[in-house]
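Tokens as discussed.
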């Protein structure tokens, strides 16, 4: 089974081809970070324009890497949402054009299902499992009893983890995207600044990071008003410790309550060194299998979309040529 995946939900134009749901044959990502950097974040209009310019080039490169033609592809999987509508539409329209021209099935994929399925490119999934999703726009705990079935048991009530990283980085005058910079700084500093942790109600698996973000901003501003400076590495270390403390504690509780066999980590923030080592330490007793994808599969790519698409294709999920981009798509929509 050969699946071609297309991803354009945000600021990466990506095409990949995978074999039998797990083997990467081609994986091409054109990042737009350089174009958005000077604005301190993703500018939707610029993102769409780049996708239009890049999609054909990236597609051709992927086919070249795989050394196959469209005749051998079984299905075309594309991110239908969530994401920026104008960005999503470029991928959706490219996928529809190819599906029509080559008479191939079209499989719609949820972007976060893709992030979760990046883990299947690392190892075979064992159910039931729990996925900790920590990305630029999402912070969720997702329970899966079987392939292609997603139950959100907790999610952020305000900022996503990655969003908080990026905003804190901006406060510290670090370039976009700020996550990797905070991560690096955090390892040079000490968590000596007292910052809040939002545990929310007893038993809740929801998250909240806006209070923490505001506390960091206030700490910086108050120090500036007093004419003092705070060591940015200590602030980064304190912020990172607070984020990781909440993520790991809630995840551990959910792993125990739901009795899962595997814990998958997904999304761009899964690239965080502090989070990776805290999770490795917490789950080192071997009771469950901890899976964290390599860095290149944590951030946006199309191999993960093809991996989720492979499973959705087997499940019989199809879209026709009326497929549209859905910016606020719900991950539970294809559960049966
Ligand atoms: P979503 O997947 O929710 O639609 P997205 O696709 O924009 O959002 P991803 O590409 O999964 O998000 O991840 C990007 C985020 O990951 C950014 O917020 C970035 O700062 C963060 N990130 C990347 N590397 C690190 C790191 N080492 N530490 C912390 N955060 C990181
Ligand atoms: Mg991105
Ligand atoms: Fe993403």
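Sequence:
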């Amino acid at each position: 089974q050969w699946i071609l995946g297309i991803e354009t939900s945000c600021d990466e134009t990506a095409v990949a081809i995978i074999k039998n749901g797990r083997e990467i044959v081609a994986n091409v990502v054109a990042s737009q970070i350089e174009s958005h950097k000077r604005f301190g974040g993703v500018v939707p209009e610029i993102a769409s324009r780049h996708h239009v310019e890049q999609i054909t080039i990236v597609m051709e490169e992927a086919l070249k890497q795989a050394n196959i033609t469209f005749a051998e592809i079984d299905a075309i999987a594309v991110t239908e949402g969530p994401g920026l509508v104008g960005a999503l539409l470029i991928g959706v329209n490219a996928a529809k054009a190819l599906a029509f021209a080559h008479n191939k099935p079209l499989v719609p994929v949820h972007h976060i299902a893709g992030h979760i399925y990046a883990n299947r490119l690392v190892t075979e999934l064992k159910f039931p499992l729990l996925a900790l999703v920590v990305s630029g726009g999402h912070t969720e705990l997702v329970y899966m009893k079987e392939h292609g079935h997603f139950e959100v048991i907790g999610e952020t009530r305000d900022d996503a983890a990655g969003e908080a990283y990026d905003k804190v980085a901006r406060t510290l005058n670090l370039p976009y995207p700020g996550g990797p910079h905070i991560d690096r700084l955090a390892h040079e500093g000490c968590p000596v600044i007292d910052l809040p942790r939002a545990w929310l109600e007893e038993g809740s698996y929801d998250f909240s990071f806006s209070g923490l973000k505001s506390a960091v901003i206030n700490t910086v501003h108050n120090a500036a008003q007093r004419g003092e400076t705070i060591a940015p590495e200590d602030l980064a270390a304190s912020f990172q410790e607070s984020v990781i403390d909440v993520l790991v504690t809630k995840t551990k509780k959910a792993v125990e309550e739901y009795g899962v066999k595997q814990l998958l980590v997904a999304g761009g923030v899964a690239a965080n060194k502090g989070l990776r080592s805290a999770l490795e330490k917490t789950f080192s007793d071997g009771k469950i299998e901890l899976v964290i994808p390599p860095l290149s599969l944590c951030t946006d790519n199309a191999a993960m979309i093809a991996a989720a698409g492979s499973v959705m294709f087997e499940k019989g999920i199809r879209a026709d040529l009326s497929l549209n981009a859905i910016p606020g798509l719900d991950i539970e929509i294809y559960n049966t």
